[in-house]
Amino acid sequence: MDGMHDLGGKQGFGKIRYSPKAQTYHAPWEKRVNAMTGLLVKHGVINMDEYRHAIERMEPVHYLSASYYERSLTGLATLCVEKGVVTQADLERRAQGTFPLSRPSAAGRSNAPERERFRPGDRVRVKDDYVPGHIRMPGYIRGKVGVVVRETPPYPYPDAHAHGVAAHDEPTYDVRFRAEDLWPGGAEPAFVHAGVFESYLKRVP
Amino acid sequence: MSDSHHESGASAPVVKRAAALEAALEAQGLKPGKHIDDFSRVVEEQWVPQNGARVVAKAWTDPAFRKRLLEDGKSAVAELGLTMPAHHRYLVVLENTPTVHNVIVCTQCSCTAFSIIGMPPDWYKDFEYRARVVRESRTVLREMGLDLAPEMEVRVWDTTADTRYMVLPVQPPHTAGWSEEKLAEIVTKDAMIGVSRL
After folding, report:
1. Which residues of chain B are within 8 Å of residue A152 when distances are taken between CB atoms?
2. Using the beta-carbon criterion (under 8 Å), do A43 and B154 form an inter-chain contact?
3. CA A105, CA A107: separation in Å to the nearest integer?
4. Would you say residue B9 lies in a domain?
5. Is the complex ipTM higher than 0.90?
6. Residues B9-21: pLDDT tens digits?
7. Which domain holds residue B19?
Protein backbone atom coordinates (compact mmCIF):
# COMPACT_ATOMS: atom_id res chain seq x y z
CA MET A 1 0.00 0.00 0.00
CA ASP A 2 1.12 3.53 -0.65
CA GLY A 3 0.98 4.29 3.06
CA MET A 4 2.26 7.05 5.26
CA HIS A 5 5.14 4.77 6.32
CA ASP A 6 6.69 4.91 2.86
CA LEU A 7 8.82 7.93 3.59
CA GLY A 8 11.86 7.56 1.35
CA GLY A 9 12.33 10.77 -0.64
CA LYS A 10 9.43 12.66 0.95
CA GLN A 11 10.28 16.33 1.21
CA GLY A 12 9.64 18.89 3.89
CA PHE A 13 11.29 17.15 6.82
CA GLY A 14 13.81 19.13 8.83
CA LYS A 15 17.04 18.35 10.62
CA ILE A 16 17.77 14.97 12.15
CA ARG A 17 17.84 15.04 15.98
CA TYR A 18 21.32 13.61 15.96
CA SER A 19 23.53 13.06 18.93
CA PRO A 20 26.54 10.72 19.10
CA LYS A 21 25.14 9.48 22.40
CA ALA A 22 21.62 8.90 21.07
CA GLN A 23 19.42 6.50 23.00
CA THR A 24 17.20 3.68 21.79
CA TYR A 25 14.55 4.12 24.49
CA HIS A 26 13.31 7.23 26.27
CA ALA A 27 10.94 5.64 28.78
CA PRO A 28 10.65 2.22 30.43
CA TRP A 29 7.34 1.43 28.69
CA GLU A 30 9.09 1.65 25.30
CA LYS A 31 11.41 -1.23 26.08
CA ARG A 32 8.46 -3.24 27.40
CA VAL A 33 6.60 -2.72 24.12
CA ASN A 34 9.69 -3.68 22.14
CA ALA A 35 9.98 -6.86 24.19
CA MET A 36 6.32 -7.73 23.58
CA THR A 37 7.00 -7.80 19.83
CA GLY A 38 9.57 -10.55 20.40
CA LEU A 39 7.23 -12.39 22.76
CA LEU A 40 4.41 -12.51 20.20
CA VAL A 41 6.79 -13.62 17.45
CA LYS A 42 8.24 -16.31 19.73
CA HIS A 43 4.76 -17.69 20.46
CA GLY A 44 3.85 -17.66 16.76
CA VAL A 45 1.04 -15.15 17.32
CA ILE A 46 2.52 -12.77 14.73
CA ASN A 47 5.25 -12.70 12.13
CA MET A 48 7.42 -9.71 11.27
CA ASP A 49 5.60 -8.95 8.02
CA GLU A 50 2.24 -8.90 9.78
CA TYR A 51 3.76 -6.64 12.41
CA ARG A 52 5.19 -4.18 9.90
CA HIS A 53 1.95 -4.11 7.95
CA ALA A 54 -0.17 -3.58 11.08
CA ILE A 55 1.87 -0.42 11.73
CA GLU A 56 1.53 0.69 8.10
CA ARG A 57 -2.25 0.36 8.43
CA MET A 58 -2.45 3.00 11.15
CA GLU A 59 -4.58 6.04 10.36
CA PRO A 60 -2.08 8.35 8.62
CA VAL A 61 -2.61 11.19 11.08
CA HIS A 62 -2.04 8.82 13.98
CA TYR A 63 1.03 7.33 12.28
CA LEU A 64 2.63 10.74 11.87
CA SER A 65 1.76 11.95 15.35
CA ALA A 66 2.77 8.82 17.27
CA SER A 67 6.26 8.06 18.55
CA TYR A 68 8.07 4.99 17.22
CA TYR A 69 7.06 2.79 20.15
CA GLU A 70 3.48 4.07 20.14
CA ARG A 71 3.36 2.86 16.54
CA SER A 72 4.77 -0.52 17.65
CA LEU A 73 2.20 -0.74 20.41
CA THR A 74 -0.65 0.09 18.05
CA GLY A 75 0.49 -2.56 15.57
CA LEU A 76 0.83 -5.23 18.25
CA ALA A 77 -2.54 -4.44 19.82
CA THR A 78 -4.20 -4.44 16.40
CA LEU A 79 -2.86 -7.91 15.59
CA CYS A 80 -3.76 -9.27 19.02
CA VAL A 81 -7.35 -8.07 18.52
CA GLU A 82 -7.56 -9.32 14.93
CA LYS A 83 -6.24 -12.72 15.94
CA GLY A 84 -8.63 -13.04 18.86
CA VAL A 85 -5.97 -12.98 21.59
CA VAL A 86 -7.62 -9.97 23.25
CA THR A 87 -10.56 -7.69 22.55
CA GLN A 88 -10.40 -3.96 22.01
CA ALA A 89 -13.01 -3.58 24.76
CA ASP A 90 -10.74 -5.43 27.20
CA LEU A 91 -7.78 -3.25 26.24
CA GLU A 92 -9.83 -0.07 26.67
CA ARG A 93 -11.18 -1.22 30.01
CA ARG A 94 -7.65 -1.87 31.24
CA ALA A 95 -6.31 1.41 29.77
CA GLN A 96 -9.28 3.36 31.18
CA GLY A 97 -9.72 5.16 27.89
CA THR A 98 -9.82 4.68 24.15
CA PHE A 99 -7.18 2.50 22.51
CA PRO A 100 -6.94 3.39 18.82
CA LEU A 101 -6.06 0.50 16.52
CA SER A 102 -4.96 0.32 12.90
CA ARG A 103 -7.37 0.20 9.99
CA PRO A 104 -8.41 -3.19 8.56
CA SER A 105 -6.19 -5.10 6.20
CA ALA A 106 -6.87 -5.41 2.47
CA ALA A 107 -6.08 -8.53 0.45
CA GLY A 108 -2.55 -9.80 0.07
CA ARG A 109 -1.14 -11.60 -2.95
CA SER A 110 1.12 -14.53 -3.77
CA ASN A 111 4.30 -14.53 -5.85
CA ALA A 112 4.23 -13.18 -9.39
CA PRO A 113 3.21 -16.04 -11.70
CA GLU A 114 6.31 -15.79 -13.86
CA ARG A 115 9.46 -14.84 -12.08
CA GLU A 116 12.78 -14.27 -13.79
CA ARG A 117 16.14 -15.06 -12.22
CA PHE A 118 18.78 -12.37 -12.36
CA ARG A 119 22.52 -12.21 -11.97
CA PRO A 120 24.81 -9.44 -10.79
CA GLY A 121 25.20 -6.91 -13.59
CA ASP A 122 21.70 -7.48 -15.01
CA ARG A 123 19.66 -4.38 -15.70
CA VAL A 124 16.21 -4.60 -14.14
CA ARG A 125 13.10 -2.47 -13.93
CA VAL A 126 10.87 -2.41 -10.86
CA LYS A 127 7.34 -3.28 -11.94
CA ASP A 128 4.55 -0.73 -11.85
CA ASP A 129 2.74 -2.59 -9.07
CA TYR A 130 0.07 -0.83 -7.05
CA VAL A 131 -1.31 -3.10 -4.34
CA PRO A 132 -3.68 -2.47 -1.42
CA GLY A 133 -1.83 -4.81 0.96
CA HIS A 134 1.69 -5.16 2.29
CA ILE A 135 4.63 -4.72 -0.06
CA ARG A 136 8.32 -4.08 0.64
CA MET A 137 8.87 -1.99 -2.45
CA PRO A 138 9.43 1.63 -1.50
CA GLY A 139 7.42 3.85 -3.81
CA TYR A 140 10.50 5.75 -4.91
CA ILE A 141 11.83 2.76 -6.90
CA ARG A 142 8.55 1.86 -8.62
CA GLY A 143 9.03 1.79 -12.40
CA LYS A 144 12.73 2.67 -12.07
CA VAL A 145 15.69 0.95 -13.71
CA GLY A 146 18.72 -0.27 -11.77
CA VAL A 147 21.51 -2.83 -11.83
CA VAL A 148 21.62 -6.03 -9.77
CA VAL A 149 24.65 -6.14 -7.47
CA ARG A 150 23.83 -9.22 -5.36
CA GLU A 151 21.35 -12.06 -4.95
CA THR A 152 20.32 -13.16 -1.46
CA PRO A 153 18.95 -16.46 -0.14
CA PRO A 154 15.15 -16.80 -0.29
CA TYR A 155 12.93 -15.02 2.20
CA PRO A 156 9.19 -15.31 2.94
CA TYR A 157 7.34 -13.20 0.37
CA PRO A 158 6.08 -10.20 2.35
CA ASP A 159 3.03 -9.49 0.17
CA ALA A 160 1.76 -12.95 1.16
CA HIS A 161 3.38 -13.48 4.55
CA ALA A 162 1.70 -10.38 6.02
CA HIS A 163 -1.73 -11.67 4.98
CA GLY A 164 -1.68 -15.41 5.64
CA VAL A 165 -1.55 -16.08 1.89
CA ALA A 166 0.37 -19.15 0.71
CA ALA A 167 3.52 -18.36 -1.26
CA HIS A 168 6.99 -19.63 -2.00
CA ASP A 169 9.99 -18.01 -0.39
CA GLU A 170 11.87 -16.05 -2.99
CA PRO A 171 15.27 -14.38 -3.28
CA THR A 172 15.78 -10.68 -3.17
CA TYR A 173 18.26 -8.74 -5.24
CA ASP A 174 20.27 -5.80 -4.05
CA VAL A 175 19.63 -3.36 -6.87
CA ARG A 176 21.69 -0.24 -7.38
CA PHE A 177 19.85 2.85 -8.58
CA ARG A 178 21.22 6.31 -9.30
CA ALA A 179 19.58 8.88 -7.06
CA GLU A 180 19.46 11.16 -10.12
CA ASP A 181 17.30 8.52 -11.89
CA LEU A 182 14.98 8.12 -8.91
CA TRP A 183 14.36 11.87 -8.59
CA PRO A 184 15.50 13.44 -11.85
CA GLY A 185 16.74 16.92 -11.22
CA GLY A 186 15.83 16.62 -7.56
CA ALA A 187 18.44 14.53 -5.75
CA GLU A 188 22.04 14.71 -4.67
CA PRO A 189 24.45 12.41 -6.53
CA ALA A 190 24.60 8.98 -4.90
CA PHE A 191 23.85 5.35 -5.52
CA VAL A 192 20.76 4.13 -3.68
CA HIS A 193 20.48 0.38 -3.12
CA ALA A 194 17.33 -1.49 -2.16
CA GLY A 195 16.68 -5.18 -1.48
CA VAL A 196 14.03 -6.00 -4.07
CA PHE A 197 11.97 -9.20 -4.15
CA GLU A 198 12.17 -11.21 -7.35
CA SER A 199 8.42 -10.82 -7.98
CA TYR A 200 8.81 -7.05 -8.16
CA LEU A 201 11.39 -7.10 -10.97
CA LYS A 202 11.54 -7.58 -14.71
CA ARG A 203 14.53 -7.68 -17.01
CA VAL A 204 15.50 -4.68 -19.09
CA PRO A 205 16.55 -6.00 -22.51
CA MET B 1 12.23 16.47 20.88
CA SER B 2 10.78 13.97 23.33
CA ASP B 3 8.87 10.85 22.44
CA SER B 4 5.88 11.76 24.54
CA HIS B 5 4.71 14.95 22.87
CA HIS B 6 3.21 12.96 20.02
CA GLU B 7 0.38 11.34 21.97
CA SER B 8 -2.95 11.44 20.24
CA GLY B 9 -5.45 13.66 21.97
CA ALA B 10 -8.48 11.60 22.84
CA SER B 11 -6.82 8.26 23.58
CA ALA B 12 -5.74 6.83 26.89
CA PRO B 13 -2.13 7.87 27.62
CA VAL B 14 0.31 5.64 25.78
CA VAL B 15 1.85 4.41 29.05
CA LYS B 16 -1.56 3.13 30.11
CA ARG B 17 -2.18 1.55 26.72
CA ALA B 18 1.17 -0.25 26.90
CA ALA B 19 0.38 -1.50 30.39
CA ALA B 20 -3.08 -2.59 29.21
CA LEU B 21 -1.66 -4.76 26.44
CA GLU B 22 0.89 -6.26 28.81
CA ALA B 23 -1.82 -7.06 31.37
CA ALA B 24 -4.06 -8.56 28.69
CA LEU B 25 -1.22 -10.82 27.50
CA GLU B 26 -0.52 -11.78 31.11
CA ALA B 27 -4.18 -12.76 31.48
CA GLN B 28 -3.78 -14.98 28.41
CA GLY B 29 -0.90 -16.80 30.10
CA LEU B 30 1.79 -15.45 27.76
CA LYS B 31 3.97 -14.30 30.69
CA PRO B 32 5.14 -10.99 29.23
CA GLY B 33 6.86 -9.95 32.47
CA LYS B 34 9.43 -12.71 32.35
CA HIS B 35 10.05 -12.17 28.66
CA ILE B 36 10.51 -8.42 29.18
CA ASP B 37 13.13 -9.05 31.89
CA ASP B 38 14.98 -11.46 29.63
CA PHE B 39 14.74 -9.06 26.70
CA SER B 40 16.14 -6.18 28.74
CA ARG B 41 19.14 -8.27 29.68
CA VAL B 42 19.73 -9.29 26.05
CA VAL B 43 19.46 -5.69 24.83
CA GLU B 44 21.83 -4.39 27.47
CA GLU B 45 24.37 -7.20 27.49
CA GLN B 46 24.24 -9.05 24.18
CA TRP B 47 22.95 -6.83 21.35
CA VAL B 48 25.66 -4.25 21.79
CA PRO B 49 27.82 -2.35 19.27
CA GLN B 50 30.94 -3.89 20.81
CA ASN B 51 30.01 -7.00 18.78
CA GLY B 52 30.32 -5.19 15.48
CA ALA B 53 33.41 -3.41 16.77
CA ARG B 54 35.10 -6.78 17.32
CA VAL B 55 34.13 -7.82 13.79
CA VAL B 56 35.58 -4.63 12.33
CA ALA B 57 38.80 -4.89 14.33
CA LYS B 58 39.32 -8.46 13.22
CA ALA B 59 38.66 -7.52 9.60
CA TRP B 60 41.31 -4.80 9.89
CA THR B 61 43.92 -7.19 11.24
CA ASP B 62 43.12 -10.49 9.50
CA PRO B 63 42.89 -10.29 5.67
CA ALA B 64 41.50 -13.83 5.34
CA PHE B 65 38.72 -13.02 7.80
CA ARG B 66 38.01 -9.77 5.98
CA LYS B 67 37.56 -11.71 2.74
CA ARG B 68 35.18 -14.20 4.36
CA LEU B 69 33.27 -11.33 6.01
CA LEU B 70 32.74 -9.56 2.70
CA GLU B 71 31.63 -12.80 1.04
CA ASP B 72 29.22 -14.04 3.71
CA GLY B 73 28.81 -11.78 6.72
CA LYS B 74 26.53 -14.02 8.75
CA SER B 75 28.90 -17.01 8.62
CA ALA B 76 31.93 -14.84 9.32
CA VAL B 77 30.46 -13.16 12.41
CA ALA B 78 29.46 -16.62 13.67
CA GLU B 79 33.18 -17.41 13.85
CA LEU B 80 33.31 -14.79 16.64
CA GLY B 81 30.34 -16.40 18.38
CA LEU B 82 27.91 -13.75 17.14
CA THR B 83 24.39 -14.74 16.12
CA MET B 84 21.52 -13.05 14.33
CA PRO B 85 17.76 -13.59 14.69
CA ALA B 86 16.35 -16.31 12.45
CA HIS B 87 14.60 -13.87 10.13
CA HIS B 88 17.88 -12.01 9.48
CA ARG B 89 19.02 -14.56 6.97
CA TYR B 90 21.88 -12.65 5.41
CA LEU B 91 24.41 -10.05 6.54
CA VAL B 92 26.04 -7.88 3.92
CA VAL B 93 29.16 -6.02 5.02
CA LEU B 94 29.76 -2.81 3.08
CA GLU B 95 33.38 -1.84 2.69
CA ASN B 96 34.23 1.84 2.94
CA THR B 97 37.36 2.96 1.09
CA PRO B 98 39.09 6.32 0.82
CA THR B 99 36.82 7.05 -2.17
CA VAL B 100 33.59 5.17 -1.30
CA HIS B 101 31.26 5.87 1.59
CA ASN B 102 28.36 3.59 2.57
CA VAL B 103 25.41 4.53 4.77
CA ILE B 104 22.44 2.46 5.96
CA VAL B 105 18.77 3.35 6.42
CA CYS B 106 15.38 1.66 6.60
CA THR B 107 12.97 4.09 4.94
CA GLN B 108 9.84 2.08 5.77
CA CYS B 109 10.44 1.16 9.41
CA SER B 110 13.65 0.62 11.42
CA CYS B 111 15.40 -2.54 10.25
CA THR B 112 19.01 -2.99 11.38
CA ALA B 113 21.47 -5.76 12.18
CA PHE B 114 20.76 -5.01 15.84
CA SER B 115 22.39 -8.13 17.26
CA ILE B 116 25.67 -7.08 15.63
CA ILE B 117 25.80 -3.26 15.60
CA GLY B 118 23.45 -2.66 18.56
CA MET B 119 19.91 -1.36 18.77
CA PRO B 120 19.01 1.45 16.36
CA PRO B 121 19.37 4.93 17.84
CA ASP B 122 16.29 7.17 18.06
CA TRP B 123 17.25 9.37 15.09
CA TYR B 124 17.59 6.28 12.84
CA LYS B 125 13.88 5.57 13.40
CA ASP B 126 12.77 9.18 12.98
CA PHE B 127 10.91 10.38 9.89
CA GLU B 128 13.59 12.96 9.08
CA TYR B 129 16.39 10.45 8.59
CA ARG B 130 14.17 7.91 6.83
CA ALA B 131 12.75 10.44 4.38
CA ARG B 132 15.87 12.43 3.60
CA VAL B 133 18.99 10.27 3.54
CA VAL B 134 18.11 8.43 0.33
CA ARG B 135 17.53 11.66 -1.58
CA GLU B 136 19.93 14.16 -0.05
CA SER B 137 22.55 11.95 1.56
CA ARG B 138 25.37 14.46 1.44
CA THR B 139 23.37 17.23 3.07
CA VAL B 140 22.06 14.91 5.76
CA LEU B 141 25.53 13.56 6.54
CA ARG B 142 26.95 17.08 6.63
CA GLU B 143 24.25 18.12 9.09
CA MET B 144 25.24 15.12 11.20
CA GLY B 145 28.86 16.21 11.20
CA LEU B 146 30.27 14.25 8.26
CA ASP B 147 31.34 16.50 5.41
CA LEU B 148 32.22 14.31 2.43
CA ALA B 149 34.37 15.57 -0.43
CA PRO B 150 32.38 15.97 -3.68
CA GLU B 151 34.48 13.25 -5.34
CA MET B 152 33.59 10.70 -2.66
CA GLU B 153 31.12 8.13 -4.05
CA VAL B 154 28.12 7.75 -1.72
CA ARG B 155 26.18 4.50 -1.53
CA VAL B 156 22.96 4.49 0.47
CA TRP B 157 21.51 1.09 1.44
CA ASP B 158 17.76 0.94 2.14
CA THR B 159 16.98 -2.11 4.29
CA THR B 160 13.81 -3.09 2.43
CA ALA B 161 14.11 -6.88 2.87
CA ASP B 162 15.42 -8.99 5.75
CA THR B 163 18.97 -8.74 4.50
CA ARG B 164 20.90 -6.78 7.08
CA TYR B 165 23.80 -4.42 6.46
CA MET B 166 26.75 -3.07 8.38
CA VAL B 167 29.48 -0.70 7.25
CA LEU B 168 33.12 -1.73 7.51
CA PRO B 169 34.89 1.58 8.18
CA VAL B 170 38.32 2.48 6.89
CA GLN B 171 40.99 1.87 9.51
CA PRO B 172 42.47 5.21 10.59
CA PRO B 173 46.12 5.29 9.48
CA HIS B 174 47.43 6.28 12.92
CA THR B 175 46.13 2.97 14.36
CA ALA B 176 48.40 0.76 12.25
CA GLY B 177 49.89 -1.99 14.38
CA TRP B 178 47.35 -1.69 17.21
CA SER B 179 45.98 -4.86 18.80
CA GLU B 180 42.49 -6.08 17.89
CA GLU B 181 41.26 -5.20 21.39
CA LYS B 182 42.53 -1.65 21.15
CA LEU B 183 41.17 -1.22 17.63
CA ALA B 184 37.73 -2.43 18.69
CA GLU B 185 37.54 0.41 21.23
CA ILE B 186 37.51 3.08 18.52
CA VAL B 187 34.72 1.54 16.41
CA THR B 188 31.32 3.15 17.01
CA LYS B 189 27.75 2.21 16.16
CA ASP B 190 27.48 5.39 14.09
CA ALA B 191 30.51 4.39 12.01
CA MET B 192 28.89 0.99 11.35
CA ILE B 193 25.65 2.73 10.28
CA GLY B 194 27.75 5.05 8.15
CA VAL B 195 26.91 8.47 9.54
CA SER B 196 30.48 8.97 10.68
CA ARG B 197 33.94 7.96 9.53
CA LEU B 198 36.66 7.07 12.01
Report:
1. 89-90, 161, 163
2. no
3. 7
4. no
5. yes
6. 589 999 999 999 9
7. 14-44
CA angle A5, B108, A52 (to 5 degrees): 80
Q: Which residue type, as a one-letter code, is found at position A8? A: G
Q: Determine the Cα angle at B97 with ends B91 and B99, to 5°.
A: 130
| Closest C-alpha to B135, from A19, A184, A126, A172 | A184
- Predicted TM-score (pTM) of this structure: 0.96
Instruction: Tell whether domain A123-203 is in CATH 1.20.272.10.
Output: no
Q: How many CB pairs under 8 A join A and B?
A: 268
CATH 1.10.472.20 domain span(s) along chain A: 1-105
B129 and B145 together in one domain:
yes
Backbone angles phi, psi at A17, to 5 degrees: -80, 70
- Whole-Å CA distances, A38 to A91, A94, A109, B31, B36: 20, 22, 26, 12, 9
What is the pairing mode between strands B163-168 and A172-178? unpaired
Q: How far apart are CA B93 and CA B56, in angstroms?
A: 10
- Residue B6 counted as domain residue: no
pLDDT in tens, B116-142: 999 999 999 999 999 999 999 999 999
Are both B84 and B152 inside the same structural domain? Answer: yes
The total of structural domains in chain B comes to 2
Which one of A2, A5, A7, A129 would you mutate to disrupt binding with B, by most B Cβ within 10 Å of its Cβ? A7
Measured between beta carbons, the chain A residues lying within 8 angstroms of B105 are: 8
